[in-house]
Write a structure and sequence with these properties.
CATH class of the largest domain: Alpha Beta
CATH topology of the largest domain: Rossmann fold
Structural class: alpha/beta
Strand content: 5-15%
Largest sheet: 7 strands, parallel
Distance between the termini: 41 Å
Shape: globular
Order of helices and strands: HEHEHEHEHEHHEHEEHEHHEHEHEEHHH
């Protein structure tokens, strides 16, 4: 039975459930946020009734056909700081009005953890409020604003957003994080009774699975994702150029730096030491991950827990990643993968060589798959959220 089939059966079983209904609230959704939100809605809809309140949902999103939706506006956050601030406030007021009209028992702010006005409004309306950060939003905003504004101004604005987020954490009945380490990096205590440090993330384990045994894989390492500045692509280009001749570095994906890579690594590409696959459709990603001996992901400190890491481990592909946010709870050094100590290209290249020379990589590959099956399957994610909703059920304001 596939996970999709189980999902449909779960949705039927939610009729008559004793779990509280949930209204998920998000900020305007870009592609990455839309994917994460869709996953969360799949989990919640399998165990209870759920609706989504959001803005700027992609026109082709599957969410439109699969879940009840209230779209506040088709406008995104905006390019300028002033426009973004105006829409930020206006969307909060719209959310307050919508939440007041909703019947759901629980309001879950997913990523929108600095939306203090609707958080407080939901509390005053007697609803149970949960907030779930997807990463370090204030830091993400600061890095973006530093491209437009003087550093002190960007830092001040980001500090204001962080203060709003902290106030949102305090006002909510509970805070959900992906992993305990993510909670700590957000200055939350995983042992606190109002913190739920193992939030529901899942991988479609029937789709992302081991298709090629680790022993049969070629000496290929690679990166999968957007080829842009924030993903460390320029550093990875230097790493690719430093690796031994018998190791191929494969860039899987597309982005603004695709043309730059083709020029900078022209010699390595010509002799086959570097490969650029271009865009890979999502249904072909499992095959692409199965072709790697090692996935290199110098994760940004802004990220909560990159889905690519979970998908790679599900395919039996060890991951070499920066130990930020929730990553160390999944990429366990020497057990399911390896942690990056330095993003300096020479150090990264040396680390890759040492990893490929290990004689226990097949066991590490198996450990990664076992971890995903045990903790990040769809069923495991549903069970975790059942526990969270049971815990907050009947919680009075």
């Amino acid at each position: 039975m596939t996970e999709q089939t189980r999902h449909r059966e779960h949705e039927t079983e939610t009729q008559g459930t004793d779990l509280p209904s949930v209204c998920v609230v998000t900020h305007p959704l870009a592609a990455a946020g839309e994917n994460a939100t869709r996953s969360l809605l799949d989990i919640l809809s399998a165990i209870t009734s759920v609706a989504l309140v959001t803005a700027d949902l992609p026109a082709d999103s599957e969410i439109r056909d699969r879940h009840e939706l209230v779209e506040l506006t088709r406008k995104g956050a905006g390019d300028s700081v002033v426009t973004a601030a105006g829409r930020f406030l206006l969307n909060q007021l719209r959310m307050c009005r919508v939440i007041a009209d909703r019947d759901e028992d629980v309001v879950l702010f997913f990523g929108a953890t600095s939306y203090l006005l609707p958080i407080i409004a939901a509390r005053l309306l007697g609803k149970t409020v949960l907030v779930e950060p997807r990463g370090d939003v204030p830091l993400t905003l600061r890095l973006n604003w530093e491209q437009q504004l003087p550093d002190p101004v960007a830092a001040g604005l980001a500090g204001a957003v962080r203060a709003l987020e902290r106030a949102g954490f305090a006002a909510a009945h509970g805070v959900i994080t992906y992993t305990p380490e993510m909670a700590r990096q957000l200055d939350l205590h995983p042992e606190s009774p109002t913190v739920y440090p193992t939030g529901a993330r899942y991988v479609r384990t029937d789709e992302f699975r081991v298709q090629q045994s680790y022993a049969d894989r070629d000496r290929v390492v690679g990166f999968l994702g957007r080829l842009d500045e924030e993903k460390g692509i320029r550093e990875l280009a230097s790493v690719a150029a430093e690796l031994p001749d018998d190791v191929t570095f494969r860039f899987i994906g597309d982005g603004d730096l695709r043309e730059w890579l083709e020029q900078d690594l022209a010699g390595e590409i010509e002799v086959g030491r570097v490969e650029l696959t271009g865009w890979v459709d999502h249904d072909k990603v499992p095959r692409a991950l199965n072709d790697l001996e090692l996935l290199i992901l110098p994760s940004q400190p802004t990220e909560g827990l990159p889905t690519t890491i979970l998908e790679a481990l599900a395919c039996g592909t060890p991951v070499y990643a920066t130990p930020v946010s929730g990553v160390p709870d999944v990429v366990r050094d020497g057990d399911t993968g390896f942690t990056i100590d330095s993003r300096e290209p020479t150090a990264l290249a040396s680390g890759i060589e040492k990893i490929l020379d290990r004689d226990d990589l097949a066991a590490i590959s198996e450990n990664g798959r076992t971890l995903i099956e045990r903790e990040y399957s769809f069923d495991a994610a549903c069970e975790r959220y059942r526990g969270i909703l049971r815990s907050v059920a009947g919680y009075s304001s």
